[in-house]
Amino acid sequence: MRLKDKIAIVTGSTKGIGKAIAAGYANEGATVVVCGRSVDLGREIADELTRRGLSAMAMRLDVTSSESIQEVVDGVVEKFGRIDILVNNSGISPVWKRAEDTSEDAWNQILNTNLTGTFLCSQAVGRVMIRRKHGKIINMTSIGGEVALPRLVAYCASKGGLIMLTKVLAVEWAQHNVLVNAIGPSYVETEFTAGLRSNKTIYEDLMSRNPLKRFAQPEEIVGAAIFLASDESNYITGQTIFVDGGWTAL
Ligand SMILES: NC(=O)c1ccc[n+]([C@@H]2O[C@H](COP(=O)([O-])OP(=O)(O)OC[C@H]3O[C@@H](n4cnc5c(N)ncnc54)[C@H](OP(=O)(O)O)[C@@H]3O)[C@@H](O)[C@H]2O)c1
Q: Cβ(92) to ligand 1 under 6 A?
């Protein structure tokens, strides 16, 4: 029970990696706020966790709307009086095109969700954590924030921005005991990567760059997320842990 009695918001926990992290946190004793735009999916997940005797609730959240973010933060603070952990996991990657063919709309959509959304969530939750002089924020970046992934220019720019956002927030908020770190997966088996996995040529190309030669399961990202949320990481801030099968070591 490494997160006993902690209050955790996991953005984008209606599916994929976020859903696995929400379950992992609840198993470790946290009360988890499952959120995303699909509030019905969020409710199903929270209900299932509650049926298992764990503690969870669902809220609608759109990270591209500062009003929606503030509603979630206010709702959680009103109910629990605090937020101990924020996982900024919401993310999209809707286009796979060369830079010269990437539209301004696609660029803005990706940056707004992945980077600006994370900044706005961190800011709104950070204000609450700063008042209590306590908190852990974990940003879901990607190997794409560290190495170039062709045809993912906006995605990589957003994830590279997240690594730097993590560092600046960590340095600014260390004085308030608010610790900020990031996790950088390579490729994980979720809806997000279904298209890549179904294309044999692309799949083989990706695996040729991955020493472990396989996609991760969402549950394989959870250990790092628990570690960074727990007291075991109380002297770690501003770091990115790559959970990438060795990709960035190549
Ligand atoms: N899968 C991979 O290989 C991989 C690798 C590296 C990094 N990542 C990162 O890991 C994170 C999760 O990826 P995943 O594979 O689990 O993807 P996924 O299965 O597509 O899940 C994405 C989550 O983000 C939420 N989301 C999207 N737009 C949102 C918005 N505007 N407001 C709030 N929530 C929003 C979705 O919820 P709603 O639809 O309900 O809003 C969903 O819960 C992303 O940040 C992704 O970039 C993934």
A: yes
